[in-house]
From TrEMBL, chains A, B:
This is Flavin-nucleotide-binding protein. It comes from the Eukaryota. Gene3D superfamilies: Electron Transport, Fmn-binding Protein, Chain A. It comes from Exophiala xenobiotica.
Length: 268, 268
């Protein structure tokens, strides 16, 4: 019998409010990270400066294991990050490494808004959403093979099967100019809200007000539009794997959205 | 003659790489914050604990001025945040306040992905995007009138003109149970990429490879779906302001997306 792996619940990651919305299983959290186009990556200001503010950078990230590339999303994985690694971020990572630390402490988060919940009271308005948060230690990937591994899974995250359909193999210059961070995950959590609108008892009993205030739900979806060729493209038609990726992503998004609409329509 | 207000450029917020993409004018940045359904709010771990990791919370936020409610988006504004204010966040804000600090240092960020740039080389893949980042000091709003002001502009951010069409006036219980943070902005920056795909010279000259690798662009849009009534809704039709908000948001999104597609198709 298989066991569902979960991130350990600690004071750090336990979803205190509305605890039933908290998700800790690796597959749910890793899937949210992998299907979000952008991750928000936060690091604290350097303790040896007088800077006040943490920083958030948008980056592309995907879960993977260089040691065990066939590992499933329900298994322990690292997060590979790509994007502009600023001098400051680079220096902080190096400094953490040189100080013998396990890496630079990062928080990674991904959030999808699935719909707007319009209650009778403005104070009960809310969103349906799916969010995931991971805490881990970042290091710069230096092994050329691991850089290529990271770029492969990041590229295939953007469009499934894209890597094998790009110009290959990578050159030494490609690899030398590419910054990839590997984040060793320490813990994480997810939170999913997938509810109909709801109101307080007093508002539900206010029949007169309810005749004039509309209560309902507006679905929100992210859609991939029709692919267009670059002016320098020489390939006649949009390749099948690109069209397939687009329709798969849009179908998944539409299906989840329709499930939520059914929940709203069928709530008692 | 009017002057365009900009956030001051400091080491903290200056966009070093691809500096031409950096945006500092208040209107651009405030518009990005206001039109993003969700903000990522980051705070550093408390310095008096041995915690390593910063935290990112998704929250709803909007720019406004309680003192000068008619101020435009091109004027200095505060950011009002709503969402679950965790005990930890609450305690950190109070602690900062009690220590005589101007508030808890936060980073707020908003990112929209506008399209996927598929270059010939996997290493030149990229996104078109719009992102904004604000740095400021958060305090808990305690004045009941300012709480109501914050909730009004947050609700109207979710759906334009919604507040006046909800159950009003707010009750004492509504106000007492609602956490609103006001963030006094110190500085900020934005970054916009709106480019066609591009590749290195060596790849552009590789005619054989170019016969087989598709290069192009996939637009990404966020769409509001058809509104559905809550089961307890008593109002016959979807109100005009809801339908109007939906079509305005979708039209703006479609128009910007089409501009980018034209840029891709017309690049030389």
């Amino acid at each position: 019998m298989s066991r569902t792996l979960e991130y350990p619940k600690t004071a750090r990651n336990t979803v205190v409010r509305r605890g039933h919305r908290g998700k800790y299983d690796l597959e749910t959290i890793h899937t949210l990270i992998n299907t979000s186009l952008v991750l928000n990556v936060s690091f604290a200001p350097s303790p040896d400066t007088d800077e006040d503010f943490p920083v958030i950078l948008p980056m592309i990230g995907v879960m993977g294991s260089f040691e065990n590339p066939s590992a499933g999303l329900d298994e322990p994985l690292d997060c590979y990050l790509h994007g502009y690694v600023s001098n400051r971020l680079n220096n902080l990572v190096r400094k953490a490494h040189d100080a013998g630390k396990p890496g630079l402490p990062l928080c990674l988060s991904a959030t999808k808004v699935d719909g707007l919940l319009l209650a009778l009271s403005g104070f009960n308005h809310s969103y349906n959403y799916r969010s995931a948060c991971l805490f881990g230690y970042a290091n710069i990937v230096t092994d050329p093979e691991e850089i290529v591994y990271g770029m492969r899974i990041i590229t295939d995250k953007v469009v499934r099967n894209r890597w094998d359909n790009t110009r290959l193999p990578p050159t030494k210059a490609d690899i030398a100019s590419t910054g990839v961070l590997r984040v060793t995950i320490k813990t994480g959590s997810g939170k999913i809200k997938a509810d109909p609108p709801s109101d307080d008892k007093a508002d539900m009993e206010n029949e007169e007000m309810r005749q004039s205030v509309w209560a309902g739900y507006i679905p929100v979806t992210e859609n991939l539009g029709e692919p267009v060729p670059a002016v320098y493209n020489r390939v006649d038609a949009v390749p099948e794997y690109v069209a397939q990726h687009r329709s798969d992503v849009n179908d998944e998004s539409k299906q989840y959205s329709e499930e939520l609409v059914q929940k709203v329509l069928q709530a008692q």
